[in-house]
Amino acid sequence: MTFAQIRQQFLDFFAGKDHAIVDSSPVVPHDDPTLLFTNAGMNQFKDVFLGSGSRSYVRAADTQKCIRAGGKHNDLDDVGKDTYHHTFFEMLGNWSFGDYFKEDAIKWAWQLLTEVWGIEKDRLYATYFEGDPENNLEPDLEAADLWKKLTDIDPAHVIPGDKKDNFWEMGATGPCGPCSEIHVDLTPDKSGGSRVNQDDPSVIEIWNLVFIQFNRVADGTLHPLPAKHVDTGMGFERICAVLQAKKSNYDTDVFTPVFNAIQERTGSAPYTGLLESEVKGQADKRDALMRDVSYRVIADHLRCLTFALTDGAVPSNEGRGYVLRRILRRAVRYGRQYFDMTEPFLCDLVAPLVEHMGDAFPELRNANQGRNIEHVVELIRDEEVSFGRTLDRGIKLFDEAAERAENNRIRAEDAFMLHDTYGFPVDLTELMAEERGMSVDTVGYERLMDEARKRAQAAGGGDDEFNMNIIDALPATDDSAKYETTMTTGQLLGYVCDGQFVDEGEVPLGETVALITDETCFYGEQGGQVGDRGDLEATGESPGAFDVPGFRVTDTKRFGETVLHIGEMVSSEFPLTVGTTLKMNVDADERQQIVRNHTATHLLNWALRVVLGSGVDQRGSLVDTDKTRFDFTCRKALEVDELERVGKLVEQKISAALVVQTKEVAETDARHINTLRAVFGEKYPERVRVVSIGADIDQMLTTPDDEKWMEYSVEYCGGTHVQTTSEIEHFVLIGEEGVAKGIRRVVGITGEHAAQAVRDGEALANELASLAKKVDSGESVDLASMQQRLTDSVIPIAVKHTLRQQLIELQKKLKKSEKASSAASADAVFAAVDDLVASAQTIGDITVVVGEVPTANGDALRTAIDRVRQKTKGSAVLLATHEDGKVTLMAGMSKSAIAAGLKAGDLIREIAPHVGGKGGGRPDMAQGGGGNPEGIAEAISAATDWLRGKLGA
Q1: How many CA atoms lie within 13 A of 565 on its CB side?
Q2: How many CB atoms sit inside 10 A of residue 79's CB?
C-alpha cells in the first residue's frame, strides 16, 4: 500500500464506526499559549477533556500534523541519527468523548491492525498499566483482561508497564488515566518480546490507547470522571514502515519523493540508508554516512518548516520562531558541508514537498490567499540568504575553535561567539562537535548568555551599549519642548559610550554615542512613534539655522526620564564639550510627516470602530515618516466597502479642519469619557495626556457619558500631533492583512504621498479599461505585466482590490478568447496535415509526413501527429510552424518507425540548427525551435533527406 492508501484506510475504518472525520488543527496553536507547537492529536480537543468545551459529535478521527521540537517534547537532537525520530510527523488518532471506552477501543485497534492491515498477530504486544503503590494508583487489570477476552492476541504478549510508559497525565492536575500501548516485533525470528519499551528500533510502539477516566485534584488524589474518554495516537510514518516492510521510516514512500527532490537539486549521490551503527570503524564509509544523515535531516526539517510556516509561524529570535530558525539553520549547515550547497536550496524543495503532500493537506497550496508555496519559499529563501552570509565564516571559526578546544571540549567563549556573531544556535555547535567526537562547555555558554540577557534587559530590550546597568545613574531630561517646537537649546550633561556614562570632556569623534541634555525638543521613541532625527551644534546663541553641524542625531530614544540623542560627531572643527550649550534642531520635514501620520492614526482608530463596531481594540502601531501601521482586533479580512468607508471617514475629518486638543488630566477622570480609546493591556500612570480631535476635553470631562462624544477621536497619547486635521491634507489606506489569529493590520499614508497614490490608482484603472477594450477587439495584450504592476503598486487598497477583481475577470475573458482562437487554429493545422498525409510518400510500412503548417501551439501539433498515426499503419512526422519570429518544430515516430531506427529526438537535433535553434526529446516525440523562420524550408528539406536516408530510400 502507498502512504496515501494507508492514511485513507485508517480514516475510512473509523468513519465506518460512526466517527466524524475532522480536519487536522494547525501545527501552530495560535489559541493555546501553553504550547510551542501542536504535538499530539488531542491538542485540539483539550477543552473537551478539561470540561470547558464540547463538540457536535462524540466520536472523532483524524490525521494530525505534529511538531516535536523545543519544549517538553523535543526530538530535534535525534533526527538523522536513527530511523524513526522526526520533528514533524503525522499522528493518526481516534477519540471518544464520553461515548465508547476501553472495550471498543481495544477491539477496533486489533481489528484494524490484524484484519484490515494484516499484521501478523504473533508480532504484536499490548502493554497495560501495572499500577504504582507510591502514588496510590491501581493496576489497569480491566484493560489486560479485555485484551485477552476480546482479541486472539497471545496472552503472553499482554505485559505490564510502569507509570512512565503507561499512565497519561495532561498536567499536575486535571484529566488523566492509564494507557495501553501496542508494539510490533520486527525481528526476523519474532524474538523481540523482551525489548518492548526498551527504545529498540526492532520492537517499536505503533499505537497508544489512552483511557481518560480520572481527574487529579490539587492534593494529588484521583477521582473518577463522570464521563470517560478515549484518546489514541498512532505514528503514521511508523505504521507505513511496518506495512511497507521497511526497516526505516525514511525508506517509505512518505520520504522517497522528498529524497529524490533533494538528490535532483543537490546533484548528490542517492540515499542509501546508512546508520552510525553500520559503519563503526569503517572510515571509508564516513562520507557516505554523513550524506545519508544529511538526507534525513533535510527531508525532516523541510517538512517541519513548510507545515509550520503554512500555519502562520515565522522564523524569529524568540519562542517558536527561534525553534524554526534553529531547525532551518541545521538543515542549511548540512547542505553546505555535505552537499556543497553554496546557495539557497531548501526553498527550492518546497514545491516538490507540496506536490507530494498537498492532496492530504490542501492548505499547503491554498493558504495565504492561495499563494502559500510562494509565501513559504520566500520566507525560507530569506532565512537561507541571511544565514548564508555568515555560515562559511562560522564553519571556519568552528574549525579554529576545535583546534584550541580544552580537554576535547569547545570553549564556552567560542560557542557564545558562534551564536552571538554568526547565528549558530548552540545545539548546532553541539551537533558539529559531536560529529568530531567532541563536546561543548554548555554550562559556561549559558553563563555568558545569561550575562548578555541581563545587559539587554538593562537596556530596555536593546541598545545595551548605551544603557547596560546605568539607567538609574542617568540625569533626567525635560523634553516638554517637543510639543511646541523643532528648535531649542540645551546644556550637554554628558554622554553614554561603551556602556558607561561620561560627564566630562569632549564627545569622541567617529564613535556612536548617546548625548544627554537637560532640555530637548527631540521626541524619544515611545508609544509606536519613532524617534526624531536632526543635528546638534555647540553654541551659546539663540536657536537658528545650522552653518556647520557638529553632531548628527540618527535616532532618539527615551529610557525612564532620560532622552538619549544617538548618533556621531560629523565634524572635528566644532567639538562638543560636556557643560556647553547646544543648539538643537529636529529635522522639521521629517517631523511634519510623522505628526501627520500620528494624528491620522488616531482618526483611523476611530473610523475602524465606527465601521467594524466597538469590539475593535488596538493591538499595536508604528508611526514613522512614511506611513501609519495599525494593528487591531478583527476576526476576518475587511471587505472593499468597509475599507472605503474607513478611508472616507478619515478624509471627512481631515476636510473638516478639526482642532487637535491635548490636556494632562487624572486617569481616573479620563477613563469615563464615552469614546476614549486606550491600548488593550496597557498600564497608565495617575496623570495621563489626553488627545482629542474636534471635541473640547473639559466639556467631555463634565459630561463623559454623552453619546455625542462617540463622533470624535479621544485617546491617551504622549506623541506629537498636528494642530488641525487639515495639515494632514490627504489620507488613503494602502494595505490590509492578517498578522495573527484575530489580529488585522492596516497601513495608511498621508499628505502628498496619499495624493500620488490616488493618482496612480486612477492611472492604473484607465490603463486596465484600455486593455479590456483591446481584449474585446481581439488584440493581443500582456495581462501578466499588468498583474505584476498592480501587485507592486502603492494605491488605495480598496481600488487595488477592485482592479484585481476586474483583472481576474479580464483574464478569464482573454483565456476564453484564446481558447476559441486556439480551436480555430487547431482545425487549420489538422486540415493542413490531412493534405500532407494525402500527398506523403510511404517507404515500406512507414508514411513520411514532413511539412509546414499554420501557426499552432504545441498541444495542437502533438494532436496533429496523433491524427497521422491513426490514419497510417506506421509514420514518421515532422511539422514546422512559426509565429512572431519564433519557430516550433515537432517530430513524432510510431512504434514501427522507432523499430526501423528512427528517433524523434535525433531528427530534431539534426534539423534544428537550420532555424537557428536546438531541441530534443524522446524517441516517439520530440520538440525544438529557433529564431529563424527563413530556415524552415531548409529544415523541412533536411528532415525529408534524413528520414529517407534512414529508411534506405
Answers
A1: 31
A2: 23
Q: Counting Cβ atoms within 10 Å, is residue 618 exposed (0-12), middle (13-18) or buried (19+)? A: buried
Structure confidence at residue 391 as a pLDDT band (50, 70, 90) = confident
C-alpha grid cell for residue 783? 495581462
Residue 254 has what DSSP assignment? T
> Which amino acid is located at 676 in the chain?
L
Taking only the tens place, the pLDDT of each residue in 930-942 is 999 999 999 999 9
Look at residue 357 and give its three-state secondary structure.
helix
Q: Cα separation of 540 and 518, whole Å?
A: 15
Closest C-alpha among 573, 493, 576 to residue 536: 576
Q: How far apart are CA 586 and CA 124, in angstroms?
A: 77
Which of 272, 276, 334 has the alpha carbon at shortest distance from 301? Answer: 334
Q: What distance, in Å, lies between the first and last C-alpha atoms of the chain?
A: 52
638: left (phi over 0), alpha (psi -120 to 50) or beta: beta
3-state class of 843 per DSSP?
Answer: strand
From the list 562, 455, 479, 585, the residue with the least C-alpha distance to 515 is 562
Q: How far is residue 227's CA from residue 206's CA, in Å, rounded to a whole number?
A: 27
- Answer yes or no: pTM beyond 0.85: no
Cα 226 to chain centroid distance, Å, stands at 42
DSSP 317: S
Q: How far is CA 889 from CA 807, 905, 940, 946, in A?
A: 34, 11, 10, 15
Cα 842 to chain center, whole Å? 61
861 burial via Cβ count (<10 Å: 0-12, 13-18, 19+): buried
Between CA 11 and CA 19 the distance in angstroms is: 9
Map grid coordinates 502562520 to a residue.
312
Q: What is the mean pLDDT of residues 293-321?
A: 90
